[in-house]
Amino acid sequence: HCVTDENPALFKMIKRRAAKIGFSGPQILKCDLYDSNKENRPKMVFMNYKQANKLQDLIQKYHCPDVGHEVLNTAAVNAGSFDVYIRLTNGEGAALLDTWLDAKRHVIEWILDMKKDSTCQGRTRNLEDILFACEDETISL
Questions:
Q1: Quick check: 34 pLDDT over 80?
Q2: What is the pTM of this model?
Q3: What is the DSSP string of 70-120?
Q4: Alpha-carbon 20 to chain mean position
Q5: Residue 116 · residue 109 · CB < 8 Å
Q6: In the prediction, which pLDDT does 36 show?
């Protein structure tokens, strides 16, 4: 596993918006997308990214039956992954990065002005509420 300190360098890394930080829901789920969906009614599926293996299994079953499961299974790709911890500045030990980010995300978004170009946050929050209320965290619109 990896341990890093909760310090300004960590916030600088987040502010650079490198890799996965740089492109996320607020840049995609804007009013124009919702308006276009309402007008054109495309078939769309929203799911918690942690459920991606289930979607990959369905795709494989119907569209790639000759491809081995291990090729499409993200768990197999991540089998060698490790946990990342943030050493807390308040002296209360360390927290898993995912837990730390979940606890700090609203403060980080505000401090770093990460949502300055986002629109229709209410619609996105409603969509998230519906998504997470479902047992399999997947919805079709």
A1: yes
A2: 0.54
A3: HHH-HHHHGGG---EEEE-TTSS-EEEHHHHHHHHHHHHHHHTTTTTT---
A4: 8
A5: no
A6: 92
Amino acid at 33: L
Instruction: Tell me how far the alpha carbon of residue 63 is from its chain's centroid.
Output: 26
- The two structure tokens encoding residue 21: 């930080």
Torsional class of 120: left (φ above 0), alpha (ψ -120 to 50), beta (otherwise):
left
Mean local confidence (pLDDT), 12-29:
68
Q: Do residues 141 and 44 lie in contact, with contact meaning Cβ atoms separated by under 8 Å? A: yes
40-76 as b/e, with b when 16 or more CB fall inside 10 Å? Answer: eeeeeeebeeeeeeeebeeebeeeeeeeeeeebbeee
Report how far residue 97's alpha carbon sits from residue 84's, in angstroms, rounded to the nearest whole number.
6
